[in-house]
Amino acid sequence: MRAQALRLLVTLWPSVFLAAEASAERLPIRTYDAGDGLSHDRIKRIVRDQRGFLWFCTPDELSRFDGYRFKNYGPDAGLPHSQNDLVVTRDGTYWIATNGSGVATLRQLGAGAANRAGTSDSKFSVHPGPSPRADRVNVLLEDRARRLWAGTDGGLFELERGKETVAFRRVPLTALTRADNAIQ
Q1: Neighbours of 155 (CB within 10 A)
Q2: Are 98 and 83 in contact (CB under 8 A)?
Q3: What is the pLDDT of residue 184?
Q4: 105 and 97 in contact (C-beta within 8 Å)?
Q5: What is the 3-state secondary structure (H, E, C) of the chain?
Q6: Which residue, 15, 59, 136, 145, could crosslink 153 as a Cys pair with Cβ 3.0–4.6 Å?
Q7: Using one digit for the tens of pLDDT, what is the confidence trace for 132-174?
Q8: Rounded CA gap, 81 and 98, in Å?
Q9: Minimal CA–CA distance to 144: which of 89, 97, 93, 99?
Q10: Cβ–Cβ under 8 Å, residues 58 and 43
């Protein structure tokens, strides 16, 4: 009896495999570009936020994709220069690394405030670095201690966040000496 069951399983297994392969569906893949509303065809960074939106940092503008259409943020919305990176910190603040204006933050306003002001539903605040080289921010990172770091053309900075201001505090990077690198 056991031998018959094993023989039946060996006989049926290829059929099951072929049936599963035949019924497998290919997932739809769609390519999006500037013709679909993306602000530029060159993407520097893609970030998914807590609400499920995809954000695209491009040389022109910052694009947000909701699964159906793009909304672009650029100079008209108060976001200068191209964007190199974006990080959403644990407190929900959107930090954007710009290529010449330091960092920018995006603050979502309530619908009532947007309607009363007659403006868009978001506002950018720009926080320049201490020098032109530090204004070219390449990468942002929030660490486990909720410190925000900015890698710039002018070095590494910790961003000290005040209620309305952001201060760039330079982190000195010292070269390792040969003794530091020695294997003990």
Answers
A1: 16
A2: yes
A3: 42
A4: no
A5: CHHHHHHHHHHHHHHHHHHHHHHCCCCCCCCCCHHHCCCCCCCCEEEECCCCCEEEECCCCEEEECCCCEEEECHHHCCCCCEEEEEECCCCCEEEEEECCCEEEEEECCHHHHHHHCCCCEEEEEECCCCCCCCEEEEEEECCCCCEEEEECCEEEEEEECCCCEEEEEECCCCCCHHHHCCC
A6: 136
A7: 999 999 999 999 999 999 999 999 999 998 877 888 999 988 7
A8: 6
A9: 89
A10: yes
- The answer to whether 88 and 144 have CB atoms below 8 angstroms apart is no
User: Which tens digits make up the pLDDT trace of 77-91?
Assistant: 888 888 999 999 998
| Locus of tokens 């954007």 | 96
**Cβ atoms 38, 58 nearer than 8 A:** yes
Prediction pTM value: 0.72
pLDDT tens-place string over residues 55-110 = 999 999 999 999 999 999 998 888 888 899 999 999 889 999 999 999 999 866 44
The edge-to-edge listing of strands for the beta sheet with 54-57 is: 45-48, 54-57, 62-65, 70-73
- In the chain, how long is the greatest CA-to-CA distance? 83
Question: What is the phi/psi pair of residue 5, to 5°?
Answer: -65, -45
C-alpha angle 22-28-31 in degrees, rounded to nearest 5: 145
